[in-house]
Amino acid sequence: MLSHEDIDELISQAEQILARKLYPDNDVFIDVMNGLTGDAIVVFQRPPLAKKSLYSKDIVGQKAKRKNEAAVYRTFETSLNTVGLLARSQEDVMVRQRVYPIRNQKKNIGVVIVEDSVDEKMKHFLVAQNGIEQNRSHPISITSKEFVTDNIDEGILIFNATGYLVQMNRAAESYYHGFGYLDDILGMHYDNLSLDMSTFEQLNYLRSRNGGAGSMEKEIKFGNLYFEMKYIFDEVEGTVIVIIHEVTEVRKKEAEISDKAVVIKEIHHRVKNNLQSVVSILSIQARRCSTDEAKKVLTESVYRIMAIARTHELLSEQLEDDISLKAVLDSVIENMHRCYEDLYHITIEATIDEELILSSDVVVTIALVVNELIQNCYDHAFNGRKQGQINVDVSQKEGYVYISIEDNGVGYPKDDIKQNNLGLQIVTSYVREKLRGKLDVQSDSKGTKTAFYFKK
């Protein structure tokens, strides 16, 4: 979006072109970039002062297409001058363009385009051609046919010591054709082909600053495309080899993954909030219940939902789907201790492997199982006891996870376990079916230990 200051600067540039009669023999234009569509739009046009225009009508307001005017888009994207590139005008006339950036507050806000007839040979183009002929008579040893191959996807450009392109492969030619270059780029100067803001002079300066290093690498963005660039310097011949590798699809996939991760985090956050709302409703309902049995059922449901909500809360704070089991179980234990705060004589000790990271589905399952077992200890293990101890132990060994919940309560005969106990059904089915693990329960007058293990 152009600011008022940007528009004032563009108007100033147009007024200077008119007042100072700049480029009297050329058609001159000013283009700006449409930030929404990414198209260059003509906003100023001045025909030649001393000769006939290459255009039969006013083209202000029309688009400059990338496939037709590579120089315009290159200068927009690199802020570098682009001189002598072939272009196709809005009236389907072949012209040569010189394009110069218009900058304001360190940003590119537009370009000045000076157009010549294709028949008029420009000085820089002749110099380039002479450079090619000179180098063809003095072959460069490292740029043999075996080195520059047409059978690889990377584009290869080889510039001589003065910065002119002397050799390239088909991939490089295809890249630049896609950028909208209509000329044969062989013989063009590096400054007309650079895809970032670097010039050949700057490239040589960076080479000297790198202590004579034989190569350097960087990643650039050109339009909507991403490229990994590698520059190889031959100190003997003075040549520069540029290898272009497109990574646009990789970066798009990374962006998609990042976007999806943000959406997933938001989903987990909303699920957590919704579960907390359910907890609040059930808690209110439990307080209004007239029977202890109904209140107990609702309260147990609250504990289970809180265990699930904590997992979603942690997932909403990270990008990965894997999660720390300790973080979730610590929260489950804290919730249990708070919910049974009137049973202050019962303490919980937990030893949980901090490095144990599991998928969110597995963590939710374990959280529910541990929640049921701890709740069972609070409800039944210490009847008639003045104090009690619950130990939670979680470890991993040789690809297996071992979890045990142990109390020093009154114990119970296994035959007395009610088969319609929902908590026991959750523990048994979740361990066997969801975790595909083994469950073992040992109980006597000294307490109860429930242990289970499963493969990671």
UniProtKB/TrEMBL annotation:
<dbReference type="Pfam" id="PF12282">
    <property type="entry name" value="GAF_PdtaS"/>
</dbReference>
<dbReference type="Pfam" id="PF07568">
    <property type="entry name" value="HisKA_2"/>
</dbReference>
<dbReference type="InterPro" id="IPR003594">
    <property type="entry name" value="HATPase_dom"/>
</dbReference>
<keyword id="KW-0902">Two-component regulatory system</keyword>
<dbReference type="GO" id="GO:0005524">
    <property type="term" value="F:ATP binding"/>
</dbReference>
<keyword id="KW-0597">Phosphoprotein</keyword>
<protein>
    <recommendedName>
        <fullName>histidine kinase</fullName>
        <ecNumber>2.7.13.3</ecNumber>
    </recommendedName>
</protein>
<feature type="domain" description="Histidine kinase">
    <location>
        <begin position="266"/>
        <end position="456"/>
    </location>
</feature>
<dbReference type="InterPro" id="IPR036890">
    <property type="entry name" value="HATPase_C_sf"/>
</dbReference>
<keyword id="KW-0067">ATP-binding</keyword>
<dbReference type="InterPro" id="IPR011495">
    <property type="entry name" value="Sig_transdc_His_kin_sub2_dim/P"/>
</dbReference>
<keyword id="KW-0808">Transferase</keyword>
<dbReference type="InterPro" id="IPR022066">
    <property type="entry name" value="PdtaS_GAF"/>
</dbReference>
<dbReference type="GO" id="GO:0000160">
    <property type="term" value="P:phosphorelay signal transduction system"/>
</dbReference>
<keyword id="KW-0547">Nucleotide-binding</keyword>
<keyword id="KW-0418">Kinase</keyword>
<dbReference type="InterPro" id="IPR038424">
    <property type="entry name" value="H_kinase_PdtaS_GAF_sf"/>
</dbReference>
<dbReference type="Pfam" id="PF02518">
    <property type="entry name" value="HATPase_c"/>
</dbReference>
<dbReference type="GO" id="GO:0004673">
    <property type="term" value="F:protein histidine kinase activity"/>
</dbReference>
<dbReference type="InterPro" id="IPR005467">
    <property type="entry name" value="His_kinase_dom"/>
</dbReference>
